[in-house]
Amino acid sequence: MSKTSVKRLEWNAAELGSPERRDGERSEPSRSGGDSNSGGAQQGVPVGSVPDPEVAAKPARRRFTADYKRSIVEQSDACQDAGAIGALLRREGLYSSHLSTWRRQARQGELAALTPKKRGRKTTVSPLVEENRKLIAANARLSKRLGNAELIIDVQKKLAALLGRPIPDTPIDEENE
Asked: pLDDT tens digits for 73-118?
């Protein structure tokens, strides 16, 4: 390379200024420990120290409220320009699958579908099992009432015997009931 081309490159670099960097880039001096270096070791960091990874040990699952989902669906429906939906998703940190799922949920029933759903296996109860449960509960309730009634009858028989008017024992015919 000739001296004039090197001067031309220096002049262009000086005219353009330093390149602009976005927040959080690795080559920033404040994050990398000084000027960007390719030596592997950071300046000013003692050897053997553990760097801060800047992430949580276990990431928390994001949960979106029904109002937030509804507002994002409305904002995306209002987008007119090409690429506006993509810009909305990038700004909010969402995926396109979020938007498509929320739109489908809104079509199926806005208030019911946009509330958080219980995770895990869905339980299905057949009508026969449900009827069996009701009959078992009714049987238990009636058995308890029968036990109380028999206790009252026994007390009445003992009282009648004490008063001198015994009540004869009559067998109950269970087949006729």
From this structure: 989 999 988 899 999 999 999 999 999 998 888 888 765 655 667 7
Q: Do 108 and 133 fall within a single domain?
A: no
Which distant-in-sequence residues (6+ apart) come within 8 Å of 70 by Cβ?
A: 106, 110, 114
- Of the candidates 169, 172, 145, the one whose C-alpha atom is nearest the C-alpha of residue 157 is 169
Residues 130 and 162 reside in one and the same domain: yes
Q: Which two tokens stand for residue 122?
A: 């869905």
**One domain for residues 135 and 157:** yes
Q: What region does 26 belong to: left with phi over 0, alpha with psi -120 to 50, or beta?
A: alpha
Give the domain range for residue 107. Answer: 66-113
**The pair of three-digit structure tokens given for residue 20, joined into one six-digit string:** 């602009």
**Residue 92: inside a domain:** yes
* Domain count of the fold of the chain: 2
| Residue 146 forms part of a structural domain | yes
The overall longest dimension of the chain from CA atoms, in Å, is 137
Q: Same domain, yes or no, for 101 and 135?
A: no
Two tokens at 62? 């994001």
Q: How far is it, in rounded angstroms, from Cα 91 to Cα 79?
A: 14
Mean pLDDT of 29-45: 50
Helix residue spans in the chain (DSSP H): 3-16, 29-32, 66-78, 84-92, 96-113, 127-162
Contact 63, 98 (CB under 8 A): no
